[in-house]
Amino acid sequence: MAFARTCSVALVGVEGVVVEVQADLEPGVAAFTLVGLPDKSLVESRDRVRAAVVNSGAEWPQRKLTVGLSPASVPKGGSGFDLAVACAVLGAAELIDPRELAHLMMIGELGLDGRVRPVRGVLPAVLAAAEAGYRQVVVPEQTAAEAALVPGVSVLGVRSLRQLIAVLTDGPVPEEEPVEDGAPDAMLAGLLVPGAGTGTLAGSGPPARKPDMAEVAGQRAARMALEVAAAGAHHLLFMGPPGAGKTMLAERLPGLLPPLTPKEALEVTAVHSVAGVLPPGKPLIDTPPYCAPHHSATMAALVGGGNGQPRPGAVSLAHRGVLFLDEAPEFSVRALDALRQPLESGQVLIARAAGMMRMPARFLLLLAANPCPCGRHNRLGGGCECTPTAIRRYQSRLSGPLLDRIDLRVHVSPVSRAELIAPRGAAESSETIAARVREARERARGRLAGTPWTVNSEVPGHELRTRWYPEPGALREAEKDMECGLLTARGLDRVLRVAWTIADLAGHDRPTADDVAQALHLRTGVARRLSAGVGR
User: Fold this and answer.
1) b/e for 48-59, b at 16 or more Cβ within 10 A?
2) Which keywords appear in this protein's UniProt record, sorted alphabetically (predicted)?
């Protein structure tokens, strides 16, 4: 009996499970059996691996062959096991020294000609391998840069099975013809989701020209709300008539956010790699993502799921970035209410018969809505013809529990003629506002050092009430609103979080009564008397 083993990784959502690939050869009628809960695409690897081995110049063993994927209780899918299966078979046939394979992690699909094709999810797979103690990883050459993002792991990128066999047997490494410059590379097809185009989700990723806040005319209250939302990662609702600039403002929010930390960049890149929307030629995403799905998106498209292996949804693709829902009341009510759990926990748990899948979803939610179906309700001279019932039904599509989780609610009024024709340079640029946002986040990070939280929106209300106090008497107005039923207990906590963000922007050691009044105004829309503000 001949035996060899190597390792690969099975992805469950964005988390990897190390799988040992074992190959056993016994005398008997030539057959190839694959066991270990493989799905259809993995079962088909038997034919791909056999053809790839033969076309790579190696001899296929004419004996009874059994390949086992362990642990057998974990469902396995995809074509990323091909390379590990082929090498385990060659090791069992003693064409490769089995000892060379035992401590290698292999990820990659095989073409019938023996070329190694890239697959999605290489980064989270290599992260799982590193956590399991593996230090040598073999991946397709196209994804070697992505795999190299994981520290402490030696990455070998190969173009073909022939090259890998030569490396493992200390033979001369054959040269593979590279793709001509400008020619299409069919090998990259494995990295993209069908219909994803260039690899970025429609409405996600940075636009060709970076939008600037200096281009926004007027909208002082909305600009202030964007600054507060960026500084404290607070969720935001823009309500106003069509053409007031809600979408224009939303597109400029990512430019106010600070760059991702190395840890956050790996989290975001891992999600985009699994989803097949990683931008080509950019193995690491270091800027906050921006995802704006169409209002016809289903609940599975928003929170993740789908038939078969669940896939990341828009909330995960917007992890550490911005999720913008334009025309929010036009979304399915079920889809909107499904956002309530990830807004609180920062993650999505998708339950299926085969098990549960966990995906990160710590995003900044920005909603934009019209006041009524026609958008002209309460607009002077607007001529709204919507019935009170239609208006009430339209506004009720944003449920109370969902709105209670939105920290900032701002009415966006149409821009006046004077504001529109004001000379350039009157409005601050995104760069100037982003500098203040970074300073505010540094203050919050210093205050929250030694805790699991980094921004004000993540701090539990109990901690705010017991560890970080505002100035004496600062919460008097908020407590009155709570007694009158204008605020829930959750709402009071969120007002306190926003007040801390306003204090950080203003450079205050603790929230003052004015900071809390500003926070109440941004949440309830009711103006309060102020002696000073953060608006600029």
Assistant:
1) bbbbbbebbebe
2) ATP-binding, Nucleotide-binding
Cα–Cα distance for residue pair 16/131, rounded to 1 Å: 10
> Tokens 């001899």 sit at which residue?
59
Q: Position 116: which residue type?
A: V
Contacts of 392 (CB under 8 A, 6+ apart): none
d(CA 79, CA 480): 61
Rounded distance between C-alpha atoms, residue 481 and residue 384, angstroms:
32
Letter string b/e over residues 143-155, b meaning 16 or more CB atoms within 10 A of that residue's CB: bbbbbbbbeebeb
481 — alpha (psi -120 to 50), left (phi > 0) or beta? Answer: alpha
Tokens of 149: 């993002």
The structure's pTM equals: 0.88
Residues 124 and 259: beta-carbon distance below 8 Å: no
Strands 2-12 and 15-26 turn out to be antiparallel
> At 530, phi and psi to the nearest 5?
-125, 145
Distance CA 494, CA 476 (A): 15
pLDDT in tens, the chain (536 residues): 589 999 999 998 888 999 999 999 999 999 999 999 898 889 999 999 999 999 999 999 999 999 999 999 888 988 999 999 999 999 999 999 999 999 999 999 999 999 999 999 999 999 999 999 999 999 999 999 999 999 999 999 999 999 999 999 999 998 877 655 555 566 666 665 554 433 334 344 444 568 888 888 888 889 999 999 999 999 999 998 888 889 999 999 999 999 999 999 999 999 999 988 887 778 899 999 999 999 999 998 999 877 666 788 999 999 999 999 999 999 999 999 999 999 989 999 887 766 678 899 999 999 999 988 888 777 665 678 888 899 899 989 999 889 989 999 999 988 877 777 776 666 788 999 999 999 999 999 999 999 999 999 999 988 888 888 888 888 888 888 888 887 888 888 899 999 999 999 999 999 999 999 999 999 887 776 665 444 44
User: In sequence order, what DSSP letters do the residues of 306-331 get, joined into one string?
Assistant: -SSS-B--HHHHTTTSEEEETTGGGS
List, edge to edge, every strand of the sheet that includes 64-70. Answer: 31-35, 64-70, 15-26, 2-12, 105-106, 136-140, 154-158
Report the alpha-carbon distance of residue 61 to residue 59 in Å, rounded: 6
Nearest-angstrom CA–CA distance, 12 and 35: 19
CA distance 433 to 430: 5
**CA distance linking residue 174 with residue 180, whole number of Å:** 18
